[in-house]
Amino acid sequence: MFKFIALVAFCVSIYSAELQPRPYALVKQEIGRGQTVMVEAGSTHCQTCIDMGRLLYNEMQLNPDRKIFFVNVGEERDAARAMKIQMIPTQIIYDAQGREIDRHIGGFTTNGLKRFLAKHKI
Q: Are 59 and 2 spatial neighbours (Cβ–Cβ below 8 Å)?
């Protein structure tokens, strides 16, 4: 019985670990501060966004110094307008000066995300 409970707890911890939303006002303060930033615009009610949250969480565990943020545009409509979000999930890359340099709409596979992050040296 103990093994079963331990297995369930392990599975729950794996599948519930995802990048947590940050208020857009706080994320904006991180953009243009000398480091490349990635913003994941999505919703906690979108399955592809949830999958992306898990992938991004795993990437952050590998390198916690990365500037990767999740903004819940389902709840922050003004943020969606400010970032010109048309579909979710959308990943936006800002350079060290705060200029948008790339945008991807949709989800990634693990390898696709790794390539995208490597391309932008995140």
A: no
